[in-house]
Specification:
The structure is a homodimer of 144-residue chains. Chain A is an alpha+beta fold. Chain A has six helices and six strands. The structure holds zinc ion (4 copies). Chain B binds a DNA duplex (30 and 30 nucleotides) through helix 4.
Amino acid sequence: MHDLIRQAEALCQRSGMAFTAPRRRVLEILAASETPMKAYDLISKAGEGGQATKPPTVYRALDFLCQLGLVHRIEQDATFVACNHAGHSHPMALFVCNTCLKATEVAYDEVAPILEKAAEMQGFHLTRLVVEGRGQCQDCALAA
Amino acid sequence: MHDLIRQAEALCQRSGMAFTAPRRRVLEILAASETPMKAYDLISKAGEGGQATKPPTVYRALDFLCQLGLVHRIEQDATFVACNHAGHSHPMALFVCNTCLKATEVAYDEVAPILEKAAEMQGFHLTRLVVEGRGQCQDCALAA
DNA sequence: GTAGGTAGTGTTATGTAATAACATACTAGG
DNA sequence: CCTAGTATGTTATTACATAACACTACCTAC
Ligand SMILES: [Zn+2]
Ligand SMILES: [Zn+2]
Ligand SMILES: [Zn+2]
Ligand SMILES: [Zn+2]
């Protein structure tokens, strides 16, 4: 869990970016969370000593972390989740369990080319791809 | 363009649902729009005589139309677009052009099984899949 | 017909997500 | 020092979405 913070520090250093206090706090909270979090849940915890802070503080940190690939935004429900493949930029899908709400990250190198081809057939050139799913995770399936 | 309305009427009749005035107005506006629309743009036009109406009126109509597959919601930017393959329910992706903002709908029967398999390998059982893209459409590529 | 259920709408108010705009602080480079 | 670049703090506002309740239309059972 603290691995992620160390990786983030290293990644920032390499790319000459500052891993500042608000960025660290937001990433720490996300890394400690079992499930993806809403921005306003972060806002209510990301201040000094776990106090609330202001929306722009958190949104700026989230933008930064998303750009570095340390955090992913789940578009379906506007939540944010720490990435457990720190700094990767290969195509990946996020599957969220409807029961426990945990997110599973899955690589899909195989799929991107197919979608790109399907798009190109209509003359469309892809620059960004969002793949998200909903369903039931293994733990919840076994528990049922 | 009015085809869509007739198809919607038929679809509703078949499934015993009411194609009521607000639902019709929302679908008409979306069908007439070149690009996906924000909910509040609809709200400001969907009332009697093109006047504004109240949010719940429009959101309820949108929920209804989305469930029937007559409208799709684009999660990335919370916009809504009329479906030009009325009432289909096969897997499809929406690609939005960054330049002209038009949405292109693409079927991808090929891809869903791969993603399902990738998910199952992690024990995850998919019930819903969202595939969205961004990029440049053919027209804009040629114009550039 | 009339009571009760279902489906849909109208309306008010509120909750939730995100950003604009501007002021302030820190930190190199000349 | 001074200033350009980067980031944060703060206030206010905009944008997106739903809760809750009253009311109407319609259908069906008794
Ligand atoms: Zn990741
Ligand atoms: Zn689960
Ligand atoms: Zn469609
Ligand atoms: Zn275009």
